[in-house]
Amino acid sequence: MNTTMYQMKYEACLAKTRINDVPLSSQELSELQEDISATRHELQCCDDDGIEALLVKTLDFQESLLSPIRKLPSEMLEAIFHFVVALPESGAPRSDADVPFEISLSLNDKKFVGRVFALIWVCSWWRRLALAQTALWSSIAVVDNSQRIHDAREQLELLKCILRRSGTSGPMDFRLHISSRLTVTRHDTLPFLTIFSSVPFDHTQNGLVETFTRYASRWRSFTFLTNSRTNSETFYEVLATQLATLNPSTQFPFLEKLELGSGFSLDDESPLAIKTVRTAFSSSCPRLRSLGIYSLASSDPMDLKSLTVLELHNYSGRSFAYLLNHCPLLKSFTVRFFYRGKDPNLDSDTAYINSSRHTSLRILRIKGMGEEFASGAWDLIYLPNLEEVIVSFWLRMDGDVLNELGELLTRSNCTLRKRSGKFSLWYSV
């Protein structure tokens, strides 16, 4: 045969491997084995370098059609795909609290990263299976830091294309972190002020927010982080507009984990969009187990009874007792500041006496305890099953606040776990 015939034979074998055209009958298997023997014989007798290269590739493709993995049922191969994509980079198993972001995008680098892309490049058979498995395209993390100087509209359009592969139903996991650029204004006259202000969302950032909020009814976990109050308000406005199109009773049927790492106290001056979104989260999240928000007050109308993890920047109330009473399943509680306030429908501290014993809490973290952490936070609270306490504090703080924490541990009669040979009670300055 001439070179053209060997090229045609090579292309025919390549096409079979791409569509996974494996031998299904004994006759087809016998024919393939005969072809392999013939190719090996031709390779031994070949003295043309070009033809020899074609024969080597042809033989590889022919032998690959006998590989056991090609005979796996589609359902089993799909399960393997999910395991490969969801496995952390370290190879260690994930805990139940981890969210496997299967696809990540850094707009600064203009790169989509994810093991799913490697799967679809193997062959058309694997590509077809992976594209049909919507769960592989339903978990995305996007980071846009303040250093980006180029227009990322192309990446935004590719993101929308990827999201279309997630189908029209089923839960989704999103993480969006936008660091806004800051402008600096200095005044050289008294009072010598330096004013920092953030640059509003650009077209791409607005597009990211609109794209992710469009899938709000499918969120299983959602994280939004930004360093700008203005842009955080923009996020709430976009989300409030999207929620207006959904059924109020089923806005977040899948939501299990929510983290809004930037926000504001919910007071009379809070923008209407923030109040609208917070109200929606309080009544339409039947599966919510993990919540991280900037601020919470005892008067906020949020349903917390199913939470197992709660992370706050600040809390306002008479003490943490009212909060803990409304989180009976809470296992981990993280807070930074405590502001003394009033609890609704409670005129005296005696109302706590019969209901301040919380038996579920295992982990307590207090970050940056200082002047803004008021006394009275732990009044009439008992945490008998507390296992781990991590505290960091500033030099300038009220010593009574730390003493109150010690009194809490003493009256709770809890047993802290040992950690690396030391009790897990850490003080850092």
Written description of the protein model:
- Helix 1 packs parallel to helix 3, helix 8 packs parallel to helix 9 and helix 9 (229-243) packs across helix 10 (272-283).
- The chain is elongated, with a radius of gyration of 29 Å.
- The strands form 3 sheets. Strands 1, 2, 3, 4, 7, 8, 9, 10, 11, 12, 13, 14 and 17 form a 13-stranded mixed beta sheet that branches. A two-stranded antiparallel sheet has the order 5-6.
- With 429 residues, the protein is α/β, with parallel strands linked by helices.
- The longest helix has 20 residues, at 26-45.
- It has helices spanning 3-18, 26-45, 49-64, 74-86, 115-120, 124-132, 153-164, 203-213, 229-243, 272-283, 321-325, 399-412, and strands at 103-106, 111-113, 139-144, 172-178, 182-186, 194-198, 219-226, 257-260, 290-297, 309-317, 332-335, 337-340, 363-369, 388-393, 418-419, 422-423, 425-426.
- The chain is built from 12 helices and 17 strands.
- Residues 91-97, 190-197, 347-354 and 420-429 have low confidence and may be disordered.
Question: What does this entry show, briefly?
Answer:
The chain is of the alpha/beta class. The chain has twelve helices and 17 strands. Strand 15 and strand 16 form a beta hairpin.
